[in-house]
Design goal:
Helix content is 56%, strand content 10%. With 528 residues, the protein is α+β, with helices and mostly antiparallel strands. The termini are far apart. The structure holds protoporphyrin IX containing FE. It comes from Ananas comosus.
Length: 528
């Protein structure tokens, strides 16, 4: 009897091991081999799969090599530095080829028609890659959701970003610009404190990268939380710290499930999340109360979102689709994550590009002064700024803040001539599409805002080759918000300063979630 129990238990354990082993074998070897065969059988070429890590080691090696030094000159040809592995693969195997991101093949989709198809296919077909537990600390809200949940949230949040609402946010952006200009003006007073003895210097060096991070952080705090600006600012600091921790951990630790270990870093992240939760709940409760009593005149994003949500739950059956407090917190945290750094990156590369191309800087300034003189820009004037808009588009083309986005097949899907099995990542390489001479002509690598003179649709040789904000139903919800903020800020800077690159500037775009300047962006400002 005893031995039969032991035998039975032993067989169960052995069977368990066999199941786990087979699963692991399938995940680490059989499935990647199957996917590899399925792609090659349809004419696609790519790198050879390497056990578990795929091209991870090569990617890391290239990344370290390229990031060890800045670009040799002030070129806009930034791809070799920011996406060397994909560039290598495309050169060797063709534009539509694949590399291995761990155990997943990642196919680059360069054809704008196919990109459009991926982005506009109904949800449930090409989905986003599910973020791991670490990424979920910062990737929240709309960016995370799929299916019905995404559709409900998007419907509720959309009205907050309508043009009429954005117009009301202009004073908040304007206040943030005032602070930025004032900070820079103060630097011109000798000693930098602004309360010195009045001795004035003509030139000052400013690292505009941290400056724009502060500016866009303040802009989100004011526009999202208006009257609760101070709490908003605190949330921004906490979100920033979270972002820095996540980037740091992601670069150092490659351990699945790391987020669940009781490490010092994980505890700090939990503490930050708890503090954000308390602050946001307090704000949300106050606001909901004010809206119910009919006393809310707030036009900030939080109020607009809560109003739209309360309307949703008041409508028949709407209570099932309305957002919970957790959902609202997730969406507000996303505004910081998605809207702060992207816009800071855009403004930074704009100042760098206009320093490299002083003739365009002069043209843009001339336009701003013609439209506004020295007065503060208003909404209708901003929408008439043609050169400034062309300049910003050209910067978004050459330096897209989000350099690539990705989708994944969750079931067999046909795209173009290829039928993709489930488990294939489709990389939509925005920066490659934006730099491709086939779509933009022989001057694709040059800074030439003129190409946007007749609008986006006429700028490229094929439609759909300009996608800095993505496209389709999941297009960036904040694109008009970001454009308004960037135009206003640039106009104010052009009114007050002329600028050029500092001799200490090193041209080194690199990818950490968005396209950062690796050594900052020191610029010499001259007061006008
Ligand atoms: C220059 C500035 C910006 C750029 C280049 C940019 C770019 C993008 C891109 C490429 C996506 C698509 C991501 C994907 O599908 O994987 C996206 C989505 C999103 N962006 Fe932006 N963004 C910018 C500013 C903003 C701002 C200011 C906000 C909010 C205040 C914002 C909020 C969002 C949200 C919520 C999504 C998710 C939309 C959805 O899935 O329905 N973004 N953005």
């Amino acid at each position: 009897m005893f031995w039969s129990v032991v035998l039975l238990l032993g067989s169960a354990v052995a069977a368990g091991f066999v199941v786990v082993f087979l699963r692991l074998l399938n995940w680490a070897w059989l499935r990647p081999r199957r996917l590899d065969r399925a792609l090659r059988a349809q004419g696609l070429k790519g790198t050879t799969y390497r056990f578990v890590y795929g091209d991870g080691a090569r990617m890391e090696q290239l990344r370290k090599e390229r990031e060890a030094k800045p670009l040799p000159d002030l070129t806009h040809d930034i791809i070799p530095r920011i996406a060397p592995l994909f560039q290598e693969a495309m050169r060797e195997y063709g534009k539509m080829s694949f590399v291995w991101l761990g155990t997943h093949p990642a196919v680059t989709i360069m054809d704008p028609d196919l990109v459009k198809e991926v982005l506009s296919t109904k949800f449930g077909h090409f989905q986003k890659h599910k973020p791991d537990s670490l990424s979920r600390v910062v990737v929240t809200g709309l960016l995370l959701h799929e299916g019905e949940k995404w559709a409900n949230h998007r419907r509720i949040i959309n009205p907050a970003f309508h043009t009429e609402k954005l117009k009301c946010m202009l004073p908040a952006f304007s206040e943030c610009c005032d602070e930025l200009i004032e900070r820079w003006e103060k630097l011109f007073v000798a000693g930098g404190s602004g309360d010195g003895d009045g001795e004035v210097s003509l030139h000052r060096e400013v690292d505009v990268w941290p400056e724009f991070q502060t500016f866009t952080g303040d802009a989100i705090s004011r526009t999202a939380f208006g009257s609760s600006f101070e709490e908003g600012r605190r949330i921004f600091q906490l979100q920033n710290e979270l972002g820095e921790i996540v980037v740091d951990v992601a670069q150092r630790v490659h351990l699945p499930g790391y987020r669940y270990l009781p490490t010092k870093t994980n505890k700090r992240m939990d503490k930050i999340l708890a503090e954000i939760d308390v602050l946001m709940r307090g704000m949300i409760e106050q606001r909901e109360e004010a809206i119910r009593k009919g006393g809310s005149r707030n036009t900030d994003l939080l109020a607009l979102l809560l109003e739209s949500n309360l309307k949703e739950s008041a409508e028949q059956g709407g209570s099932e689709t309305a957002m919970t407090t957790e959902d609202v917190i997730g969406e507000c945290r996303l505004f910081y994550f998605a809207g702060h750094e992207t816009t800071a990156v855009l403004l930074t590369w704009t100042l760098v590009a206009l320093s490299m191309h002083p003739a365009w800087q002069a043209q843009a300034r001339e336009e701003v002064l013609r439209v506004f003189g020295r007065s503060k820009p208003d909404y209708s004037g901003l929408s008439r700024l043609k050169i400034v808009t062309m300049v910003i588009y050209e910067v978004l083309r050459l330096y897209p803040p989000a350099t690539m986005i990705a989708r994944e097949t969750y079931k067999e899907m046909k795209l173009g001539d290829v039928t993709y099995p489930p488990g294939v990542e489709l990389i939509l390489p925005i920066v490659f599409i934006h730099h491709d001479p086939e779509f933009w002509g022989p001057d694709a690598g040059e800074f030439n805002p003129e190409r946007f003179a007749e609008g986006i649709s006429k700028a490229s040789r094929v439609p759909g080759a300009f996608i800095p904000f993505s496209g389709g139903p999941r297009v960036c919800i904040g694109q008009n918000f970001a454009m308004l903020e960037a135009k206003l800020c640039l106009a104010r800077i052009l009114q007050h300063f002329s600028f050029e690159l500092s001799p200490s500037y090193a041209h080194a775009p690199y990818n950490v979630l968005t396209l950062h300047p690796q050594y900052g962006a020191p610029i010499i400002m001259q007061r006008l």
